[in-house]
From TrEMBL:
GO terms for molecular function: structural constituent of ribosome. The keyword Acetylation does not apply. Belongs to the bacterial ribosomal protein bL32 family. Residues 1-26 are annotated as: Disordered. It comes from marine metagenome. SUPFAM superfamilies: Zn-binding ribosomal proteins. Keywords: Ribonucleoprotein, Ribosomal protein. This is 50S ribosomal protein L32. Residues 1-22 have a biased composition (Basic residues).
Amino acid sequence: MAVPKRKTSPSRSGKRRSHIKFSSKNIIEDKKSGEYRLSHHLDLKTGTYKGRQVLDPKE
């Protein structure tokens, strides 16, 4: 059975987990409505995507 010989220090375990983190979302302000939304996503309030009407607007 494999058992570690020494205790892993907090700095060593932190180095191992250095790439495990949250990435920030790419939030932009819509040019027409001024609402915040994710880039490359449909604006649900107006129902537009890339300047074209895709869905009926929510009311």
